[in-house]
Design goal:
It is built from 9 helices and 7 strands, in the order H-H-H-E-E-H-E-H-E-H-E-H-E-H-E-H. It has 206 residues and is of the alpha/beta class. Helix 1 packs across helix 2.
Length: 206
């Protein structure tokens, strides 16, 4: 792809680093920005810079937040004794969109994947174990994607906490095996949350 401007080429190269954005799509986006008023482009740049510099992670659940404790964790109407374990912020958003879950979350920040060099120490597992050990948790819901990595992560955590007197469940398999949670439709995902089953039963059926 030939560019008449080095500045344009640099902008396209930076834009094309986003997931799912190729060079042609990046070029369309950059050319669109060039047609916009300077004030709009400036506002976009400022919002991205502000997000990058000031966004933080909730100290309780590791969800993305504007404050030390996110709005979900600080909401007195949420049940702190029920924790839904998810991979990342996109899964929190997907479950929240169903309006079927009134507990709190724990964002692991990924899944165990030896092929990618990701082990338990690379994830927010130790803080989850501390919550369980505190005795405040009554139910832990595994809501990771039904992939090999997701199942491996579920089983690892299960083995760490099975000795504690809490209910350990997993979302029902309304989600197809191999599917990522964020791509499930809201109705299917909502039913999977409501119809969750004991995790040890899911082990027998897998």
């Amino acid at each position: 792809m030939d560019f008449s401007s080095k500045l344009l080429e640099n902008a396209v190269n930076e834009m094309s680093q986003f997931p799912g954005i190729g060079k042609r799509t990046a070029l369309r986006l950059v050319l669109h920005l060039l047609k916009q008023p300077n004030s709009q482009t400036q506002k976009l740049a400022e919002s991205l810079q502000l997000m990058r510099n000031e966004i933080i992670f909730c100290k309780n659940c590791h969800n993305i937040s504007d404050k030390e404790i996110c709005e979900i964790c600080s909401n007195p109407n949420r049940k702190e004794e029920i924790i839904c374990v998810v991979e990342d912020i996109r899964d929190v958003m997907a479950i929240e969109n169903t309006s079927q879950f009134r507990g709190q979350y724990h964002v692991l920040g990924g899944k165990i994947s030896p092929m990618d060099g990701i082990g338990p120490s690379n994830l927010n597992i130790s803080s989850l174990l501390e919550k369980v050990k505190s005795g405040k948790v009554k139910e832990l819901i595994f809501a990771l994607s039904s992939t090999m990595e997701g199942d491996t992560t579920n089983f690892y955590i299960f083995r760490q906490i099975e000795k504690y007197n809490i209910l350990i469940t997993t979302i029902a398999r309304g989600i197809s095996v191999g599917d990522e949670l964020e791509y499930a439709d809201e109705i299917t995902l909502g039913r999977s949350i409501l119809n969750r089953i004991p995790f040890n039963i899911s082990l027998k059926n897998s």
